[in-house]
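ok trying this again, last paste got cut off
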Amino acid sequence: MPTPGSSTPAAPAALSWGKPVTKDTDQRWCQHVTVEFHNSGGTAVRSGSVTFGTHIIGLLGIDWGTVSSTVDLPVPIAPDARTSPTWTVCVDAWRVPLGMHIETRDVSVQWK
């Protein structure tokens, strides 16, 4: 039992995220990518990064490769807060010849 005047330390941050939601742009080598984040912990998320895995898809649906790109996590994310930022994710135009497109399918996050 806590003594009067003392407090229980806040629980650490606990960040979770959803699958990427994409929207095409007017360039076949770019997409708008939205990811929802939720901090269910007791302290703010103060730093981190988001890495996207963008797949290059051929005319017949064949996955020709994946290109990774990393951006900063939009911090701080307060305790019990939700945020859904959108990034424009692009690969080099030469990687996406006419008839091909990209699909950003993978998201990994590192945070503190």
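PB: full thing came through this time. Strands lie at 15-17, 21-24, 30-34, 37-39, 48-57, 63-72, 82-83, 86-90, 101-111.
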